[in-house]
Amino acid sequence: MTDTLHAWLDAHLPQAEALSDGVDFQLGARVLRVSGSAETVQQLTDLAPLDRLDGLDGLDGLDGLDSSHTRLPRVGLHYLGDAAIADLPDTSHLRRGPYGAITAWANDGGAYVAGANSDVKNDGRTDASPWLICLEEDLSAMLAYHVESRQALAFSRTALAPRQIAEFARTLMHWAAIADGNVLVHAAAVAREGRGLLICGVGTSGKTTLVRQCLAEGWTFLADNVVEFSPASARDASAAQLWRTYATLKLRPDALPVSPAETSISLWDDEAEKDIHFLVGTTRAQFATAPVTHVATLVLQPGGPAPPEPLAAGAGLLAIAPNTVAQFPFYEREVLERVSALTRSAPLFTAGRMPLDAMTGMLENMLEDVTA
Length: 372
What we know:
Layout: H1 3-17, E1 23-27, E2 30-35, H2 38-47, E3 51-52, E4 74-79, H3 82-86, E5 94-96, E6 102-105, E7 113-114, E8 128-129, E9 131-135, E10 141-146, E11 151-156, H4 162-166, H5 170-179, E12 183-186, E13 188-192, E14 195-200, H6 207-216, E15 220-223, E16 226-230, E17 241-243, E18 248-251, E19 264-269, E20 274-279, H7 281-284, E21 292-300, E22 309-310, H8 313-325, H9 332-345, E23 348-351, H10 356-371
Parallel strand pairs: 2-4, 4-11, 7-8, 14-21, 21-23
Antiparallel strand pairs: 1-2, 1-3, 5-6, 9-10, 10-11, 12-16, 13-14, 13-15, 16-17, 17-21, 18-20, 19-20, 22-23
């Protein structure tokens, strides 16, 4: 049923595989090469939600880069032009789930299952394909990831909205994280001297407010909404790590002020109904330059205790997993297993709302206690 769409994607895959003319950015725990869209590259460069890695193949003598970037895995993202999009086959028979994910054939209910590489298993499911596909029902945008080649094809018939730039290629980052043995968690993260604190909680629980206060007090910033978690492994015996994602904040119109205020370029996003802040200047200088050790997780909950109290791993899983598993389609089982590993990798705490100056002091004490 999907043979025509797969054939269309297969025909355009060589364009993504020949990315020698692309531009490199760091996307979590990997290097992303973007090609085929000068407009998108310019937006990413101007607003700088990701770090552009100019001269990646010749790092010697370049400020701000180190040889660790050459050891990161790579993914590619190629934007298709109008001529390619014009030949897009009919997809009306495909059923879509969240984010336009193609999950089944509408005419017979047959399951569409994405293919797997050596790190991502299919658990015996049938009708496997090497493609993971998110295609909006109105055909306004598409992202298709070929898991075997680690190359993605994309198009957008309209200019990317501020929220799409603020968390650029987030769906691709989710899939690539799974393939690399990691997981993308719905959370914020800050750090002190290489010790990372994951901050979880449902919307309006206060994650962004707390992160902004930490920024105002000189903490290192990793993420406001999604964080990449890398578990300890036999290959790398070091502690589990947290990776920076996007140098952005998403603020509601009634967001609490902090002092000093973060330096940023602000754009209003109608769909999200939030101001998207792209961090610049002194605040951007606080964006993490390397992964940090995951030493604690704080779950913010309405009506939670003050000060923070220890939280059992099972309760932490129930608090963290639903928002993370529901974020993007495919590999829900793998996501759940890795979030479970996250809850066991470092001490968990829970807290409710309290004065911000008191909360950041509590965070300092928490990091000191768990690393003592």
